[in-house]
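To assess whether the prediction recovers the assembly geometry, we first specified each molecular entity separately, as shown.
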Amino acid sequence: MADAQQTTVQFARGLEGVIAAETRIGFVDGNLGRLVYRGFDISTLVEQSNYEEVSYLLLNGKLPNKEEYSNYVSRLKKLKYLEKDEYDLISKLGKVSHPMSTLRTVVSYIGAKDPRTVEPDVAVQEDLGLELIAKMPTIVAAINRAHNGLDFVKPDPDLSYSSDFFYQSLGRKPSTIEAKMLDTALILHADHGMNASTFAAMLTISTLSDMYSSATSAISALKGPLHGGANERALSLIQKVGVPENAEKIIGEMIDRKDKIMGFGHRVYKVYDPRAKILKQFAERVTTANKQQVLFKTANKIEEVMISRLGSKGIFPNVDFYSGMLYYSIGFNPDIFTPIFAVGRISGWVARALEYVRDNKIFRPKALYSGETGPKKYVPVNERD
Ligand code: ACO
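The predicted structure of the complete assembly is given in tokenized form:
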């Protein structure tokens, strides 16, 4: 039974709809289908910018001038390398552990070795955050290599953030369209409101813990299938449907059974997810270039069936419907899809953790107590039934 004081507090399971922080970083308009970073529409940013610049924008609140941009990119390039023991750890975990568990462990390990993680001030947190942003593609690419039993490919100092991630992961340089697609996907995943992993990052840093611990918490939260991972299952559905001619029957039957179709629907967007709209254009071009058109055509037919049956309920493709297909068509295996999400999201995690800790208040929500209030009589163990 809840006590009188508790019942006067508004109860929102899972904190749904509760505003617990103020931000100037990003905004999701679920009704108009807009995603905004620091006032810029993501469609503008993916057309005209690149991941490094967007990362700077999220962290600093403005686009960099020429000198700031060049300094930022140089710092990222300088910090992107891993030590031998870090590669050794990735090798050791490579085949036995899920890539997300390896990612969590490696990020935690690098933080554990760094003496600056003991009671860091905000300036140190900023340095640690930048280091994490720089190293994340190298770590995930190395995990991808080790998980697939392949030799590591060391960073290329001349490549951009996303192209070097592509190169270290897949062992070849991307084509122009592949480079643009991956850069776009990373930008589109860089920030998305106060989702579970971002909240985990903010919650951890609010105790004045360090940025590596904050990122470790975020990665742990992203690992769960209710957050990362829907793109893996969306791709598997598209592969199961196989050809466009099967979509009507298979998807129709799933809808009749009230199955959830992976890659459709969103808690916030009740219109077409703007990220999916952008990725769909790339999906058509990249699958055509990589001779995987059947994947795109099948997906397109599934989308048609879904919108005709469920569009009136606000069910449209979300970012996961086309991202998995894109990653797969350039050569990534599905179990690395969620770590790729982390490569994009690291800038958002760091930006939001820093924004929060600069005006910090430790998170401390309450739970509605619905247990017995007693006081009950204590019975010693040998007198209990
Ligand atoms: N497939 C079939 N039906 C669906 C789907 C779907 N993917 N999503 C929602 N519906 C149905 C609901 O069951 C509900 O039906 P009802 O009116 O008969 O009760 C109706 O459509 C309206 O649903 P909403 O209230 O809009 O959806 P909700 O907010 O509850 O759920 C969620 C959102 C959890 C994302 C859901 O759409 C889902 O499970 N989708 C599939 C998983 C997925 O793709 N997740 C990735 C999200 S994006 C991201 O996290 C990066």
